[in-house]
Amino acid sequence: xxxxxxxxxxxxxxxxxxxxxxxxxxxxxxxxxxxxxxxxxxxxxxxxxxxxxxxxxxxxxxxxxxxxxxxxxxxxxxxxxxxxxxxxxxxxxxxxxxxxxxxxxxxxxxxxxxxxxxxxxxxxxxxxxxxxxxxxxxxxxxxxxxxxxxxxxxxxxxxxxxxxxxxxxxxxxxxxxxxxxxxxxxxxxxxxxxxxxxxxxxxxxxxxxxxxxxxxxxxxxxxxxxxxxxxxxxxxxxxxxxxxxxxxxxxxxxxxxxxxxxxxxxxxxxxxxxxxxxxxxxxxxxxxxxxxxxxxxxxxxxxxxxxxxxxxxxxxxxx
Length: 319
What we know:
Layout: H1 3-11, H2 20-33, H3 35-43, E1 60-61, H4 64-67, E2 79-82, E3 93-96, H5 99-114, E4 121-125, H6 127-130, H7 136-148, E5 154-156, H8 160-173, E6 177-181, H9 183-192, E7 200-204, H10 217-228, E8 234-237, E9 246-248, E10 254-255, E11 260-265, E12 277-285, E13 294-303, E14 309-314
Parallel strand pairs: 1-13, 4-5, 4-6, 6-7, 7-8
Antiparallel strand pairs: 2-3, 8-9, 9-10, 11-12, 12-13, 13-14
């Protein structure tokens, strides 16, 4: 079985399609073709002939992306995505076999939740990401900006006056806008330019990046809703180690694409996982076919019976 064959099966999945057999096929493929995952599984005494359900699949700790090259198969990567890093921390790195596959993935996900990018003026307020290299989020937003085919779409560092003028112009003309921003930058913009928005979606991507007190998503949403007279604030859940994204349309509850599944593990038992409940988040992202699809994150949250989830914080001592 080849990576391209599996990717074709993955990208064809639609919401509601059964995926358990494909997940098992991918897990065994990665065990056979990813030396790091193979050795990790062997260290846990996993008997792969007996892996016949999701509950028996091992999940690789996300910290391995900081200290190891996580690849399934042999390939020369087209791009390396890297995480943000504060002083004294090590960046995670994600080696991308095909940037075109990554673009197909995030475009399909965006269209599933929001429709065509061409319906929006897409505005990126992501200064901390723009000021470094290797951000998967910047690559995604740049592609969405290009796909919008609107001359008003673009990135902003600290040009809040210009951003406000574009939003007001779009509001007056009835043009839909999508403002994607890192939390601290959106809060700074809201503090300086509060005005009603009726045709604009504001989407926060999380993170104060050391620019201020860490706030809960609910606190952030309340501040932004008040500043812009909005009923809801949308959120994107993604990370360097994942090729896919999940989205919340405003209530803090995230929905995933059909090839992404969120499980819960007991914080006192790293090898446990269940399909519902509260605890630390384990993520199956089949779009990670060329790295590792089974990731034990350091995020805390809750998974509901319908597969939707929320994020409530981070494990103690996590970066």
